[in-house]
Amino acid sequence: MKVNKNFWFLTIGQSLANLGDIFYVVSVISILYQMTQSATVTAFVPFTITTAMFVSSILTPLAIGKWRLKTLLVGTQIGKTILLIGLGIFVLFFLQKTNYFFIFFILAGIAFLDGCANPILRTFLPYYVVDDQLVRANSIVESIGQIIQIGAWLFGALLLLVISAIQLVWLVSGLFLLSCLFLCFISHVHHAEEKEEKLWDLLTKGWKSIVATPLLRKVIQMDILETIAGAVWIAAIVYIFVEQALHAGEQWWGLINGSFFIGLLIGSIFCVKFQRVVEHCKYYFIFGGSLLGGVLTVLFGITSQPVIALILSAGIGLFSQLKNIPQQTAIQRSVSTDKLATVYTSLGTVATGVFGISSLLIGILADLFGIRVVFLISGFLLAMVSLIAFKNKQLFV
Q1: How confident is the model at residue 16, as a pLDDT?
Q2: What does pTM read for this prediction?
Q3: 137-176, pLDDT tens digit by residue?
Q4: Residue closest to 80 by CA, chosen among 52, 58, 59
Q5: Minimal CA–CA distance to 111: which of 331, 341, 348, 277?
Q6: Which CATH architecture has domain 202-396?
Q7: Nearest CA to 298 among 370, 210, 380, 232?
């Protein structure tokens, strides 16, 4: 793919940061569990991260209105690096059973900066990639992301067998520094910095773009339903499904999670290989991906065979990605590039908030009605997403 070298600097920098993010969470969970032997304490790690990213996504438009995008992106990564080094120093010299809660403040700080960086990363692609290469560029970024997701959790756990958790923190600090270096090489983009705008205008800028754009209004409806449906795939719910519905060992929990990400990866590779097909048939991939993903989720919810569940999990990941990549491309083309950062921030605010609430609700529903029911609900919600796409075909075509 013939693209601006900025694309590769951005992708490598982002990949190193993503790899580091997973490794440092693995190390923090290990440190906290070894110290407290409490599952509740370790469960607060993802809760802290999600909460901080939600707050960040609300406030990020203020920063986008004041500073250049590259400055924000590099600045947040430098900030994450400083906080992580601070975490390493704290754990090495000051950590005790009476003050371990300070770790959560550092976690919240890193997640807050991540919440600012994530929408900016997505915004850069249309600046660096020509329009007819957007599908392929999004596919490459997603492929690399899924490879990292598949390997990083397993590799991070294996690393803890040969090095200590604090040594893993120092390794992540090195990855973050490399990420900063690559991101420094990307070029500034001509993003409108409207410094005279009022506070309320900056906070609501992304929402105004969504309300004014028919496609984005439908996308946010689809995202809400998809986010609720996706809550069934959190580790705790899948673990319970394996135990109660499949009556299988813990290894199947890891295998089913891994097969889901493999499905995502295959979907990304397909979009890279057949970008023109995906480009010209965006609507069919968005509609079909949602519908088939819903059907497979229902089948997953009623099966009692671990092998079949494994295959269905991969299929759900595949169709999810075949829908998401053309949808991302449609979003990137729906508004001018200078509005994309605030649009992604607003979409991220909805996704993070809805996911946090729906994760709790899914757990309650699973306790009340059984683990299979939540997967049936998830499949129904995905079918509703396909219905929205079907009724608004002209927007995606």
Answers
A1: 92
A2: 0.70
A3: 877 887 788 788 777 766 776 777 788 888 989 999 999 9
A4: 52
A5: 348
A6: Up-down Bundle (1.20)
A7: 380
